[in-house]
Amino acid sequence: MAMQITTGTSDLRDITKMERIGAHSHIHGLGLDDKLEPRANSQGMVGQGKARKAAGMILKMVQEGRIAGRAMLFAGPPSTGKTAIALGMAQTLGPDVPFTMIAASEVFSLSMSKTEALTQALRRSIGVRIKEETELIEGEVVEIQIDRSLTGATKTGKLTIKTTDMETIYDLGTKMIDSLSKEKILAGDVIAIDKTSGKITKLGRSFARSRDYDAMGADTKFVQCPEGEIQKRKEVVHTVSLHEIDVINSRTQGFLALFAGDTGEIKPELRDQINTKVAEWREEGKADIVPGVLFIDEVHMLDIECFSFLNRALENELAPLVIMASNRGMSRIRGTKFRSPHGLPVDLLDRVLIVSTKPYLEDDVRQIIQIRCQEEDVTLDDESLNVLTAMGMQTTLRYALNLISCAHVLARKRKSDTVKVEDLRRSYTYFMDDKRSVQWLKEQQGALVFEEIEGNEDVPMDGST
Ligand SMILES: Nc1ncnc2c1ncn2[C@@H]1O[C@H](COP(=O)(O)OP(=O)(O)OP(=O)(O)O)[C@@H](O)[C@H]1O
Ligand SMILES: [Mg+2]
After folding, report:
1. Would you say domain 131-236 falls under CATH 3.40.50.970?
2. What sequence ranges are listed for the domain AAA+ ATPase (predicted)?
């Protein structure tokens, strides 16, 4: 028997997408103009013009649906904005095109195999835009009548709704009564109820009630009482990812797994059935495929099995654009004895477009520091901005950005809101950057528990050891 494939409701997906605030919260896009030229300082992005432009071009192709099944690699020294650019891309794509971000080490989990984790990540990045017909009840509320039982535990009621042509009475259950009171629906409101999900939308107040204007407040929207039938069919479009369809239809998991995030392994037979069904929907014109983007950060942490799996997966008909980032130079391919550029096997490298990110110029560092100060609500005086910029050039951009909030804490201890050079100087002595830390380790020879066993195998792109 053919299985019924469902795609869930749109409410459910809204909840699973949440935003976090963090190191990249100042990034709101790639900061490109209409011709894809990078603006000097826009949407939180500064400098790194070539890489941003390349990212913008790739996005354009994704949006036009022309570049599924390709791969791209951001290669560059640490803290040169690889992750930041990827996040900028995600924000430019819009809510309809899926963008999945994983760190390569997430693939090595105990609860599922590496290939399963990669498959899930790939399928998360493919959207299916589905056109569905839903039945709506739409009309003006004539009366809501609610009867409470003596204890108040159960409620029953009746809802009278009319259009200009007809009037109908519906029985209400507890759930509907609750949502009506939550939406503050009153007689005279024009509402729409989605029959499958029970979701109530308030469209406005009926013009017939406009004389109640004084009582309603100025922001009330008035609409005509709808015409014709109360029950209508309406086409709605929503986008889900293949992975969401997998999870919702896997009998052992069910859609609640989407909230828990723990989806376990999904049977390959189920995926085949879903692929067939989606292909059918496409042929019937009910669905479109929206190839999205999978971003794999720190990609050198994948091992040789994952790389060869990716090679194959990219050739699959339902493959997203895969973007990778690595800060390694020549380094060992995990799971082998061989060394290769960026820690990626040459056959995979051969398939990818490589974009390099370069260390920042002093002026870029200064502007990025300023943007972060705004984001973290910290004021630096001019001199400390210069000092912090110089520190950023000597150490890394990230170290300088980390010092902002440390120095702010010290400034507040002095009961001042403005960070001064002395605060920076003190934070600089409290917290080491990587170069000083290495120096310190050398001085401590033998005092720490583990020592280097063999020569340093991997060379970071900035050439330090
Ligand atoms: N061009 C830029 N404009 C604004 N902020 C940036 C830019 N580049 C980097 N940043 C910020 O600098 C910090 C370090 O950058 P990011 O984390 O993107 O580096 P990375 O290249 O991913 O480094 P790694 O190789 O260590 O992962 C982040 O807070 C990031 O948001
Ligand atoms: Mg990064």
Report:
1. no
2. 68-359
Q: At what angle do helices 114-124 and 242-249 cross, to 10 degrees?
A: 120
295: phi then psi, degrees, rounded to nearest 5: -105, 120
Atom of ligand 1 nearest to the CA of 298: 27
User: By alpha-carbon position, which residue is closest to atom 14 of ligand 1?
Assistant: 79
Instruction: Determine whether the shortest distance from the Cβ of 80 to ligand 1 is under 6 A.
Output: yes
Q: How far is the CA of 257 from the centre of ligand 2 (A)?
A: 29
Integer Cα distance of 7 and 215 in angstroms? 43
- Condensed to tens digits (0 to 9), the pLDDT of residues 431-460 reads 988 888 888 888 877 676 665 555 555 656
CATH number for the domain formed by residue range(s) 41-125+292-356: 3.40.50.300
Q: Report the amino acid identity of residue 420.
A: K
- Residue to probe by mutation, ligand 1, list 20, 24, 364, 373, most atoms within 8 Å of CB: 24
Q: Which fold is adopted by the domain 362-444?
A: Helicase, Ruva Protein; domain 3 (1.10.8)
Delimit the CATH 3.40.50.300 region(s) of the chain.
41-125+292-356
341-400 confidence digits (pLDDT tens): 999 999 899 889 999 999 999 999 999 999 999 888 888 889 999 999 999 998 889 999
